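To whoever is on call:

I kicked off a structure prediction for a single chain this morning and the downstream step that reads the tokens threw a length-mismatch warning. I double-checked the sequence; it's 147 residues and nothing unusual in it as far as I can see. Pasting both halves so you can look.
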Amino acid sequence: MEVILRQDVKHLGEKDDVVVVKPGYGRNYLIPQGFAALATSSAKKVLAENIKQAQFKQEKIQKDAAELATKLEAIKLTIGAKAGESGKIFGKVNSLQIAEALKAQGYEVDRRRITFEEEPKNLGEYVANLNLHKEVKVQVPFEVVAE
């Protein structure tokens, strides 16, 4: 029995895969639970069209992310933070502050896509890693200065 998976199923396949399963497994578990649909010829045509459209969208998103990455490589950010006399800042610089600094310069980046190689806890220069797409990553240098 052929079924089209509607979501990832462990040890079977990923979403939109066409897999062959035993009839009882498909009829009694996968289809009633909503994990799969019967793979008729019309369902396979719809699946092929959906995959084609999704691929087109992903290519556009990746292209936009690559353009943004080339723009972001040229900038350097300055983040102000309250610090003691030894250079240690109170608290730490987080991804939200980096996202706001990027937004102030005209670049919209989701804060959940920003990570650090080293947590900025002192004054100095650091690097923020921006994961714009699963294949597009860029490093943005920033400096933490005392306010």
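Update from on-call: the warning came from a stale cache, not from the record. Cleared it. Sanity check on the structure: The chain has a mean pLDDT of 92.
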